[in-house]
Design a protein that fits this description.
Strand content: under 5%
Helix content: over 70%
Radius of gyration: 26 Å
Order of helices and strands: HHHHHHH
Number of strands: 0
Number of domains: 1
Length: 198
């Protein structure tokens, strides 16, 4: 444990003042991605929305395990009440799902954009330190001299990219999943509104 803590403190020293914001970005990014992954359970297996609605109406239903199954259950119950303007009630009932699906998506995109810029800021800071060492002819000092400046420049750039690239890939994957679930929710509304008994 002490070895791990020493390594972490070494990385913070090498990276300079840009390291705390980069570490915060990494923590926020993985928290947001974890939340989005856990909250985007579609449910229903490989069944289509129409099949899931038919199974629910025929009482061949398993307990709800995801957003789509829960939305079908809620939507069919509203349809059975024979409410006028069913679409408006469904829009209102499904609004919670839309908000939950989009939660933290802006945070993920922001961190993906900001992390490389913070890495670039560390690069500039490291290069300034390098050129200061060259100007003073301090090739090797107790602070590290040229090597410390170059190390800071490369390390912060690398860390900014290490944060941004997985964030971008996972973020795109989750955005696609969000779009699919939103399409399924719209399809539930369309099917339930088209089969209303007049």
């Amino acid at each position: 444990m002490q070895y791990v803590m020493e390594n972490i403190s070494h990385y913070f020293e090498v990276g300079g003042y840009v390291m705390p914001p980069l570490a915060l970005c990494a923590l926020l990014l993985w928290y947001a991605l974890g939340y989005r992954i856990s909250s985007m359970k579609r449910g229903g297996g490989q069944y289509s929305v129409r099949d899931l609605i038919d199974r629910y109406q025929a009482n061949r239903w398993t307990p709800k395990r995801g957003i789509i199954e829960e939305a079908i259950q809620r939507g069919v119950e509203l349809q059975r009440q024979q409410l006028p303007h069913l679409r408006a009630y469904l829009d209102d009932a499904f609004n919670d799902y839309s908000e939950a699906l989009g939660k933290y998506s802006v945070l993920v995109r922001s961190i993906v954009v900001v992390s490389p810029l913070l890495g670039l800021l560390g690069t500039v800071s490291g290069m300034i330190e390098t050129f200061d060492s060259l100007q003073n002819m301090a090739l090797f000092t107790s602070d590290g001299g040229i090597a410390a400046g170059i190390s800071q420049a490369l390390f912060t750039t690398q860390l900014g990219l290490v944060i941004a690239i997985p964030g971008m890939l996972f973020g795109r994957f989750l955005d696609k999943r969000q779009q699919r679930i939103e399409r399924d929710l719209n399809q539930i509304k369309d099917i339930l509104c088209s089969t209303v008994k007049l």
